[in-house]
Design a protein that fits this description.
Belongs to the ABC transporter superfamily. ABCA family. CPR flippase (TC 3.A.1.211) subfamily. With 920 residues, the chain is an alpha/beta fold. It is built from 32 helices and 24 strands. Helix 15 packs across helix 17 and helix 24 packs across helix 25. 37% of the residues are buried. Bound molecules: 2-acetamido-2-deoxy-beta-D-glucopyranose (NAG) (5 copies).
Length: 920
Amino acid sequence: MADLVPASFLTQANALSRKNLAYQRRNLWSNVRLIVIPLYLCVLLVSIQALFDAQVTNSPDNRCGCQCTDDQSGDGKCDKKSCGVAYSSQKQAMFCAFPNPPPLPPLLQIPRPKTPSASCTRLTGSCPVTVFVTGNNLSLGPALSRSLLTTSFMVNSSVSWLRNPAITVLGTTSEPDLTNYFDPGIHSNLPIFNIQPQCTPRTTFSFSTGQSPQKFKKVEVRCVQGLSLWRNNSIDVSHEILKGYHEDVINDVAAAYDLLDTDTNKFNVTIWYNSTSKTKLLERRVKLVRVPRSVNLISNAYLQYVNGPGTKILFEFIKEMPKVETLLRVDVASSIGPVFFTWVILLLFPVILNTLVYEKQQRLRIIMKMHGLGDGPYWMISYAYFLTISTLYIICLMMFGSLIGLKFFKLNDYSIQFIFYFIYINLQISIAFLVSSAFSKVKTSSVAAYIYVFGSGLLGVFLFQFLMEDSSFPRRWILVMEVYPGFSLYRGLYEFSEYALDKRDMGMKWEDFSDGGMDEVFYIMIVEWLVSLIAAYYLDKMSSSGKDPLFFLKNPFKFMPRHSLGSEVSVEMEKLDVAQEREKVEQLMLEPTTRYAIVCDNLKKMYQGRDGNQPKIAVHGLSLAVPSGECFGMLGPNGAGKTSFINMMTGLVKPTSGAAFVRGLDICKDMDRAYTSMGVCPQHDLLWETLTGREHLLFYGRLKNLKGSDLNQAVEESLKSVNLFRGGVGDKPAGKYSGGMKRRLSVAISLIGCPKVVYMDEPSTGLDPASRINLWTVIKRAKTNTAIILTTHSMEEAEFLCDRLGIFVDGRLQCIGNPKELKGRYGGSYVFTMTTSSDHEKDVEMLVKDVSPNAKKIYHIGGTQKFEIPKGEVRISEVFQAVEKAKSSFKVFAWGLADTTLEDVFIKVARTAQAFNVFS
Ligand SMILES: *[C@@H]1O[C@H](CO)[C@@H](O)[C@H](O)[C@H]1NC(C)=O
Ligand SMILES: *[C@@H]1O[C@H](CO)[C@@H](O)[C@H](O)[C@H]1NC(C)=O
Ligand SMILES: *[C@@H]1O[C@H](CO)[C@@H](O)[C@H](O)[C@H]1NC(C)=O
Ligand SMILES: *[C@@H]1O[C@H](CO)[C@@H](O)[C@H](O)[C@H]1NC(C)=O
Ligand SMILES: *[C@@H]1O[C@H](CO)[C@@H](O)[C@H](O)[C@H]1NC(C)=O
């Protein structure tokens, strides 16, 4: 058959995609299940929302209160119901309409007293609050600080505070709310403090909340002494403010000002205030702070300093904006959206990573490669597959989310959403490719991937979001954090949820694209995607070919033995035939010819010792040349290094030293090209459980550039030749095959497309005799144009198939030659067996001595004796004559004369070699 042209990129891609399609068709349901996961999750969200609405939204506590105002009929049925602030509890009131919110006094925030048992308590008025002032001008500052609180005057119990609001300095220890319709400082039962330079007896006054006369409330006002203190610099002030924090000191700082460079022409002041507000987790609303009075106080003091005591800025009241009645509406999906959807989308990551690592772990990737599948088509098709699955997943998520009515999906512009998700899944796939090179086991990769999934979501909500919302955290660090893919995804989802939660119900549009951080996220992800794709491709290329510059980072000691091997002194005595082969190889290295398909020159493999064990040398300098059309059989006891040798030749492991050429291509450098004309039947079947035998052959046939009718014919023949054709066996999934059938399929795969070099690692293990003979004929037929290296434990097979044999013991070739030669060389004798009654044993010995004086007794038990008779000494006819004579003189139960078998040769060679190795 003519040389086949190696399959082109597209042919390979086509072969792989057809195989994958067949594979995925079988896995259709698991794919569908994966894709509809978003549906389940959306339904889950809707159920949570429904539960939430039933329990929280529709509870009477969460709407404006109503009471029955007219029940004249007395039948218990309400005739007239009135709703509003007046009929509401304090909790309900915040949902009511406020067409005219009540004016409230501006209050200063005073920290809560820390230790009630300390020497002074504010409840008795003995404990002063302080106002700190600092600044650069030592004449202006202290003067100003003195006039800060002198403006206060005693509250006259019969005068409402409203008449003189600007000059009555009131304070509270209660924290402000989210809105100012009801100030907890006034409506709670905590006292209000009137801060004055000097205290007079306590007074009480009352005021109304403005709207309803029924709610006329008396509030207790207590006097508390206010000290205005000058400090030389702002560090001192900060220290004083924070002192109470660390030490258990009552530290009642009501206000603090830094006047900076204020003078009579310029008023420039920094105001300290406590911005800490305890909001609940996940609640993104900001509480009010009590600064207005603080600002007014210093402004008034400054004005009075500049313009004289008559000048005042009156601070009448503070008042909220009017509002309509509201309902509590919490959009659960949007509120927990960022973390929830981060998980949903990240869930694809383990799926992708595990698929990649699985193909590596099961060596499916490498076996495809050995049959000529290049990295390019593999990447392209795998990428396309993952992208398709991910895209479908995302589309389903968006579709189900919108159908179910989640604002998160409905409000935001679909094109922004889709592009965002699409970029992200691309990034995710390339990250999976990148990361997969670090894993070799599915177990570890899936653990790592799930940690990544859940870790990213949790870190996103508890760390990243927290920092993002903290306006003092530098923005560029947020950008740096977004380089982590989990956070960039989180950021995007966060922006979507912000827009979905927005009261205006507008959602994110392209106009808003650069308002939040969305544009940055896009750019970061795109750049990262390209970078990780290139890095992944590079790493993959490096780890599949030997020359990787990053490999030594991963395992810095890997290369050390290479140097130490060089100095190893080889004191082995080589047999003549092995030495001849070595000479032949050396000759070939000098003047290469194409006649030899496989040439190994002094190939060595050493495995690193683990846990303090000695390093194990699997192959000791093997030299071998196999011409095209020859089947070379490798015999050897278990653990002799045959499989290591095949693994090296097929690129599974790198040789420690030495060189090997497959059709002139160096296996360390040009393995990818060598693969295009190679067939491999590995020791363990590497098959896809769900693909049929025919599909396997079609796939590998396409990789070998077979097309159309040639392909079908080759597959058909191949199935027939390995006995997988009848009964439609070839169309059953390989997972259902018996061990022997799998074996036959593996052999058929290795031979399809007439490869020039075929390696078979124990091809006939587990086969019944009939199939074995069948298989042998197939291999024999394939041999004509191909170099085959075959390992086997069956001497029969070796004798039948191999043109030459090498016996391999402890990593060394002990002898090499064709089966006949070997038998002649190592056998060289007949085995004569005779069974008589035990009385005649002596007679038998005599008989043998007669025939051949140098015969050796090798076996003797209960009348049966075996002798080894050197071939040179006897003629067979003499033996027959002697036996005939003996038969007449005593009774011979049985006798036999056998030539040495290959088995005898094998045992002999293996024994002597091992004995030699033990004693050397
Ligand atoms: C309090 O106000 C009343 C009525 O306006 C007035 O008669 C009284 O003198 C005031 N008391 C003080 C101490 O200013
Ligand atoms: C502030 O500085 C002045 C002069 O530099 C000094 O006399 C005074 O003791 C300082 N006050 C404080 C509270 O450190
Ligand atoms: C401090 O303020 C006073 C009054 O405004 C002004 O006369 C004086 O020049 C200021 N001193 C400095 C050092 O700015
Ligand atoms: C106010 O003071 C700060 C700090 O000294 C200074 O950076 C700022 O420019 C000043 N502002 C004005 C308007 O002078
Ligand atoms: C600031 O306010 C928080 C919350 O009310 C409080 O726990 C904290 O002690 C206050 N800090 C200072 C320095 O007063």
